[in-house]
Design goal:
The protein is of the alpha/beta class and about 375 residues long. Among the domains are: about 5-125, P-loop containing nucleotide triphosphate hydrolases (Rossmann fold), CATH 3.40.50.300; about 135-235 and about 255-280, no CATH class. It has helices at about 5-15, 30-35, 50-55, 60-65, 80-90, 105-115, 130, 145-150, 155-160, 165-180, 190-200, 210-215, 220-230, 260-265, 270-275, 280-300, 345-355, and strands at about 20-25, 40-45, 70-75, 95-100, 120-125, 235-240, 255, 305-310, 315-325, 325-335, 360-365, 370-375, 375-380. It has an 8-stranded mixed sheet with strand order 7-6-8-9-10-11-13-12, with helices on both faces. Strands 2-3-4-1-5 form a 5-stranded parallel sheet, sandwiched between helices.
Length: about 375
């Protein structure tokens, strides 16, 4: 069993709010976590046709009987239930109902319509490296490239499943089950090709026009498919940092996958050794670090204020984290060896915006020792937490 960082915040919300919502990608461990934390709650999954039919036959009666401690999994499969939940929690002030689901766009729509102000909302993303190390039954992977190749979904570790086989099945199941149920795909091979092109743009500025031209669909279709992947927690977009410098900055978002193993699988990377020499090695490591920071922030119930910074002149910084007047400026390097060039972007950023924000520079790298490069702290990927 993995110790999840979200546990404390989630339990506090469940005790304080009549409704708590837990979303996240399929297989991120939502059901396992809820059953572990809430052993005395009644659990029902609306993925099961007979359970769904049973709830539909008398939703008001079902909620009235169990409102003091109820987990409803895949709640988006019965959208009308949200209105009944609103009615029950308004009537019974001792209600504690937990909703979970993997299709955030459907959940978010119904919550905003019926449960606004009544529900606390959390996201459970795949494992952080810190969470991965928390399972006492596993011999932990200490090598960076082996860990990135194996990915951060808990199930393959818990059940000792073959990585390539599990991820192949995960991608196919996701396409067949979720995407087909949400968008009309006439040619499934086009969407599969779209996924591969997205993997190819991992860590790069997303170019919808180029992808649309390459796979033979409209740019509107590409953006729609992208939004589905984003709402399903497969990918996320990192916005550029504007402030008063937008005339010198690029306007495109950068694209990242939450899970490194999905990228490896889509790119045809077949081993940790292959990953170490692959041209996408740096982008995959960069995405891993940014994803780790986002996961840690989300686990505390906060919204990450993360950006990247790039001037047309070529200067760039991989990640900016905005905290009021302070900016944490982070360079991410997949090298185990440091040199003066690694701080060029940070030094230029400090020079350009030093009068408008307090800059805390940082380098995160693939080495194993936390140290200093001049005045800049250099943190090992292992010490990120």
């Amino acid at each position: 069993m993995f110790k999840r960082l979200i546990e404390k915040s989630l339990l506090e919300a469940i005790n304080r709010f009549p409704v708590t919502v837990l979303t996240g990608p399929r297989q991120s461990g939502k059901t396992t976590l809820l059953k572990y934390l809430l052993e005395d709650y009644v659990y029902i999954s609306l993925e099961s046709p007979d359970k769904l039919l049973s709830v539909k036959s008398d939703p008001r009666g079902f909620l009235t009987r169990h409102h003091q401690g109820l987990i409803i999994d895949e709640a988006q499969n019965y959208p009308e239930l949200f209105s009944y939940i609103q009615e029950i929690v308004d009537e019974y002030k001792d209600s504690h109902i937990v909703l979970s689901g993997s299709q955030n766009f459907l959940m978010a729509e119904k919550i905003s319509q019926t449960l606004a102000g009544r529900a606390a909302i959390f996201e459970l993303l795949p494992l952080t490296y810190q969470e991965y190390l928390s399972n006492p039954s596993l011999t932990p992977i200490q090598d960076l490239w082996h860990y990135l190749f194996n990915g951060s979904y808990p199930r393959p570790y818990q059940e000792n499943l073959p990585i390539n086989l599990w991820y192949d099945s995960y991608i196919k199941t996701y396409i067949e089950r979720d995407v087909r149920s949400l968008i009309q795909i006439k040619d499934l091979s086009q969407f599969q090709l779209f996924l591969k092109f997205c993997a190819g743009q991992h860590g790069q500025e997303f170019n919808a026009t180029a992808i649309a031209n390459n796979i033979g669909v409209s740019q509107t279709t590409v953006m729609h498919w992208l939004s589905i992947l984003e709402a399903s927690y497969i990918i996320f977009r990192l916005k550029p940092f504007y402030k008063n410098y937008k005339k010198r900055l690029t306007k495109r978002c950068k694209l990242y996958f939450y899970d490194t193993a999905i990228v490896c699988h889509l790119l045809g990377i077949d081993s940790p050794a292959h990953l170490m020499i692959h041209s996408s090695r740096g982008a995959i490591f960069e995405g891993f670090i940014i994803s780790e920071i986002i996961k840690n922030t989300v686990a505390k119930g906060n919204t990450p204020q993360c950006y990247y910074w790039r001037e047309h002149s070529g200067f760039e910084v991989d990640l900016l984290i905005e905290q009021g007047k302070e900016l944490k400026a982070i360079e991410i390097k997949s090298s185990m060896t440091l040199n003066e060039q690694h701080q060029k972007g940070l030094n230029h950023l400090i020079k350009v915006i030093k009068d408008d924000a307090i800059i805390t520079p940082l380098i995160i790298y693939a080495g194993n020792e936390t140290q200093y490069l001049g005045q800049i702290k250099v943190v090992s990927w292992k010490d990120l937490a």
